[in-house]
Structure formats: structure tokens, C-alpha cells
Design goal:
The chain is built from three helices and no strands. By secondary structure, it is mostly helical.
Length: 114
């Protein structure tokens, strides 16, 4: 009596191409189910997004807060050139987000390099 009982018992007699096609079929079914789940989730979230958009408009909220480290990176539309250097004119940038994000377009002049 051998110990090859169970789910994989007949697999050693199957051709490798048959195992591969079973693998592909299972993955296609999984992708199909995930696609159905995504469609249902988008339809379900649409009503919540509309409610949030109305709330933002009613409360007159500003733009998205991307970083929480420094005042000049929290709300990018409300920053200026001087805020990062308010401690000292030659101070170095010590917040990582300040070196990732450029100033808003309304603060840049044509021909200026940042």
C-alpha cells in the first residue's frame, strides 16, 4: 500500500500539457471572478463617491492633503517659495516630501528653473 492517495494521486499519470491547461483554466476562472467583483464594487462605491463629492462642495474643502510632514507640503495650492526656508535662508530641506513635490504652477514663472 503506497502513500499516494488523495488529490494528487492521478497527477503523475497526467501529461504535463494537461496539468498546464487545468492551471490555465483555474486562473481564467479566477480572473473572471475578480472582474465581476470589481464591477460590483465600482457600482457600489459610486453612490458613496457622489455623497462625498457633495459634502466636499458643501463644506468648500480645499485640495487633497498628500503629505503630513510640513506645512508647505500639506496643501500644495497654498504654499509659497519662502515657507521651506522660514527657519533660516540657507536651511536644507529636511522633509522627504519637500524634495519630491514641485511648487504649484501659479508660483513658477516662465523660464525659471527649479
Amino acid at each position: 500500500m503506497s502513500g499516494n492517495h488523495g488529490f494528487f494521486h492521478g497527477m503523475e499519470q497526467m501529461r504535463k500539457s494537461s496539468i498546464y491547461f487545468i492551471y490555465l483554466a483555474v486562473n481564467f476562472v479566477l480572473v473572471f471572478l475578480l472582474s465581476i467583483h470589481a464591477l460590483v464594487a465600482v457600482k457600489h462605491a459610486a453612490s458613496g463617491l457622489n455623497l462625498k463629492a457633495e459634502r466636499v462642495k458643501k463644506l468648500d474643502l480645499t485640495d487633497l492633503c498628500l503629505f503630513t510632514e510640513a506645512r508647505y507640503t500639506r496643501h500644495l495650492s497654498q504654499t509659497d517659495f519662502n515657507t521651506p526656508f522660514q527657519d533660516h535662508p540657507m536651511s536644507l530641506e529636511h522633509f522627504p516630501s519637500g524634495s519630491i513635490v514641485e511648487p504649484p504652477a501659479q508660483l513658477r514663472r516662465k523660464g525659471d528653473r527649479l
